[in-house]
Write a structure and sequence with these properties.
mainly alpha; two-stranded antiparallel ribbon; 27 helices; 52% helix; disordered N terminus; zinc ion binding
């Protein structure tokens, strides 16, 4: 319709009513009928019949009263004629219609049809055709009315887009284990690369041989050790478990010298001022500061020594922070300090192995609370804030984005966030002491961009954030297209980003030489590189298994190996590192990072695990190739791969000594080495299987001895009868009421707190199909599962 059509007044048309019309009402003219309706139809739908219609068109004011009868019309106009009900209808009058049909204005074509109706009394012969014609006109008017009012029918499903409803079902792009869905970046999806190894272990478990008995003993002892670490927490004593100052100083310094340089959360001068005031008058400190202090120390305790001797205390500090966030009133936690505590809690849970598999859920809550507080909007849109307030908000938002991204890689979940959801600018490259109270809008860029500042490391990491976000969406979002060309394109972009990062870190290292204080260390460089290079493994992991049957994906296998060797070098798996702390308590950055990889969990365990998957796969494949090659000549890089796996075996032993209770990661590495050596020797398949089983059995005995050391160190008494099914361990009683909702007990041996959650393969849906993978690697305790 034309754009200048008059608007439509939404009221009920007269033809919707079922009141019968008398004969006198049937003689109304079309112009009068038009005036009687409550619709202001567009100009082209109006009918102007003869002089009456023409005069009606010129009338500015519409009639809003009931139509007059035909006798009153005749009386008013002075026209003569019979007024009885048997008089003939004039040529321009409308024919009679039924109760649900009444003449309405139409277009010119409909009017022409109407003019062809004989001007005589409607008889039985013409009544049917007349009614059909009027019904067609009414239908036409209803359609035009609907179009004018933009009336549309709702979609079949308003929750799903129409295109998605018609599209074919999206591919699985992940695996299901118990109650969780693991996207393609989750480490557990790497298990499908080794169907033969786990088939052998599954068969040994079915036979209930020595291999199985050793694992049962390790499993029972590991659960007892974890249960012994949980302590009752009282909401009345939150923040009161502070150690003596000498130890507290070391733990706080360890945090600020390591993590705070990569993910900016706290303003160091402000925190240290509060810290000094606490030691002057502990009673005057707020509970918020005490929770922050305890989380600082919990993270720093991960780096304190080689055996994580403060693990139980750190777990209590983390539990207190969790309780503080949920006790009423929760709205009082919606502050900058509350956001800082949530950020530190995500890191602390990964370091202390407390619900580290669920940090993606915690990160999602953190993102939403930050957006609810407006951190996703740049401070310049929120009023005239000071430089200090604006930069703290920008730093926190950058940290939240990074934590959410890393948790998405770990959990195999989509980030559920994109650049269109925020407009907060990158933080300024300023030192903490440069955050002043002057208005942020008046601040001008100062200093040399190449100067090393407290923000240099985080800004270097943030440069590749947009690309890493695209990669995780490509890998984990199930509606994303599986395009290998897109995978190769992203690989090329990531390679460029890594080269830029290497150049940036080299420049920072050079700038550190001219700094009077330490800002940039080996710890910062290693952590930033680990967060970046891990993207290669997630990007190519879905393709590596396919490379065994499809040479098209061999490049992914090569890239995965190269990045794994790089990560092995970063994490110290290729060249073990040793070091000591200085007399003043300052820790060597190399040793700090080594202890983080040994004592930490979450991302600090997942990345080395994925690294070992790629190395072990290549080591086994190359061992097979060497056995099948002509002349049995040596295969390139076999020595380097063996060295990484041997170093990983030592790494797992250190992890168990440090308090890790899972042993199947240790088993995987040892068995992989034994399998490769058996293949190199060209042993028959039966002998190869026996070597794998025997190696696993001997390994379980050694692992149990390591666990006993941990139990004795943590004050756990052991009773060891010969029957492994009757093993009894004296665990101190725990107040279950006090721990309700706090203590997150694992629902299986390895999934929720073990070193490698291979037990999570119970009911594991190997959706990639045809791999012959085990359906259950360890039995599930129903009493524990029911608590989940």
């Amino acid at each position: 319709m034309p754009g200048n059509s008059p608007p439509i007044t939404l009221s009920t048309p007269s033809f919707f009513f079922n009141t019968p019309l008398d004969a006198s009402q049937e003689t109304l003219t079309e112009a009068t009928d038009l005036q009687d309706t409550s619709f202001d139809l567009p100009a082209e739908t109006a009918i102007a019949g003869g002089e009456t219609a023409s005069s009606a068109a010129k009338t500015e004011k519409k009639r809003r009263r009931p139509a007059l009868s035909s006798s009153r019309v005749k009386k008013g106009t002075g026209n003569a004629g019979s007024s009885d009900s048997n008089s003939q209808v004039p040529a321009r009058s409308a024919p009679a219609i039924g109760p649900t049909q009444r003449q309405s204005p139409s277009n010119s074509s409909a009017r022409q049809k109407s003019s062809s109706i004989p001007s005589s009394t409607i008889g039985s012969n013409s009544e049917a055709s007349t009614v059909d014609a009027l019904a067609a006109r009414v239908k036409e008017l209803e359609q035009k009315l609907a179009e004018s009012c933009y009336i549309t029918q709702p979609a079949q499903d308003q929750f799903i887009e129409p295109d998605d409803q018609e599209a074919e079902s999206a591919p699985m792009k992940g695996t299901v284990s118990k109650t969780r869905f693991f996207g393609q970046s989750h480490w557990m999806n790497g298990i499908h690369m080794f169907p033969g190894v786990f088939e052998m272990l599954k068969e040994a478990e079915t036979r209930k041989n020595q291999h199985h008995a050793g694992f049962v003993k390790c499993k029972v002892l590991g659960r007892a050790i974890k249960a012994n670490r949980y302590k009752a927490v009282s909401t009345d004593k939150l923040g009161e478990n502070i150690p003596e100052r000498g130890l507290a100083d070391q733990l706080v310094s360890a945090y600020f010298d390591t993590f705070e340089g990569v993910v900016r959360i706290l303003h160091r001068p402000t925190f240290m001022s509060e810290y000094e005031r606490y030691w002057q008058n502990p009673e005057a400190s707020s509970q918020v500061f005490l929770i922050q202090l305890q989380l600082c120390m919990a993270i720093g305790a991960t780096l304190h020594d080689d055996v994580f001797s403060l693990r139980a205390t750190s777990m209590q500090w983390v539990h207190e922070a969790q309780i503080w966030l949920v006790i009423p009133p929760e709205k009082s936690r919606m502050t900058i300090a509350g956001i800082q505590i949530m950020c530190m809690l995500v890191i602390a849970k990964a370091c202390c192995a407390i619900g580290q598999d669920l940090t993606w859920v915690s990160a999602g809550s953190l993102v939403r609370q930050a957006m609810y507080m407006g951190l996703h909007r740049d401070p310049r849109h929120l009023g005239n804030m000071s430089v200090y307030r604006s930069e703290i908000r920008r730093r926190l938002w950058a940290t939240i984005l990074e934590l959410n991204l890393q948790c998405s890689y770990d959990a195999g979940g989509p980030p559920l966030l994109s650049s269109k959801h925020y407009d907060t600018r990158s933080p300024a490259d300023l030192n903490d002491d440069q955050l002043t109270d002057e208005p942020d809008a008046d601040r001008k860029p100062t200093g040399n961009p190449e100067t090393l500042t407290d923000m240099s490391v985080q800004l270097a990491l943030q440069k590749s954030f947009a690309l890493r976000l695209i990669i995780i969406k490509h890998v984990n979002e199930f509606r994303s297209k599986e395009s290998y060309a897109e995978t190769l394109r992203l690989n090329s972009e990531l390679t460029k980003a890594c080269r830029t990062l290497t150049e940036t870190l080299a420049a920072l290292s050079e700038a550190q030489r001219h700094q009077p204080r330490t800002i940039f260390t080996h710890f910062h460089s290693s952590l930033v590189q680990m967060f970046t290079y891990r993207c290669f493994l997630s990007l190519h992991q879905p393709m590596v298994a396919r490379s065994a049957s499809d040479p098209t994906y061999y490049y992914s296998r090569k890239v995965s190996l190269d990045s794994s060797l790089k990560l092995a070098q970063i994490t110290g798996l290729s060249t073990p590192r040793y070091g000591t702390s200085s007399p003043g308590g300052s820790l060597d950055p190399v040793v700090s990072f080594n202890r983080l990889i040994t004592n930490g969990a979450g991302v600090f365990r997942v990345i080395p695990t994925q690294t070992l998957f790629s190395v072990a796969l290549e080591f086994i494949k190359k061992s097979e190739e060497q056995n099948d090659s002509v002349g049995g000549g040596p295969v390139m890089n076999l020595f380097e791969l063996r060295a990484v796996l041997q170093s990983a075996e030592t790494w797992f032993e250190r992890r168990i000594r440090a308090g890790e209770t899972g042993v199947k990661g240790y088993c995987f590495v040892v068995v992989s080495l034994a399998l490769a050596e058996a293949l190199e020797m060209g042993l028959p398949q039966e002998d190869v299987d026996q070597v794998v089983v025997d190696t696993g059995a001997s390994m379980s005995i050694k692992a149990y001895d390591l666990l006993k050391e941990v139990a004795e160190r943590e004050g756990l008494s052991l009773d060891e009868p010969e029957d492994e099914e009757a093993i009894h361990i004296d665990v101190p009683a725990i107040d279950s009421d006090a721990m309700q909702g706090i203590m997150e007990m694992p629902f299986d041996w390895m999934v929720m707190g073990g070193d490698l959650g291979l037990d999570g393969m119970g009911t594991f849906n190997w959706a990639r199909g045809g791999m012959g993978m085990p359906q259950q690697f360890d039995s599930v305790d129903p009493s524990v599962v029911s608590q989940f």
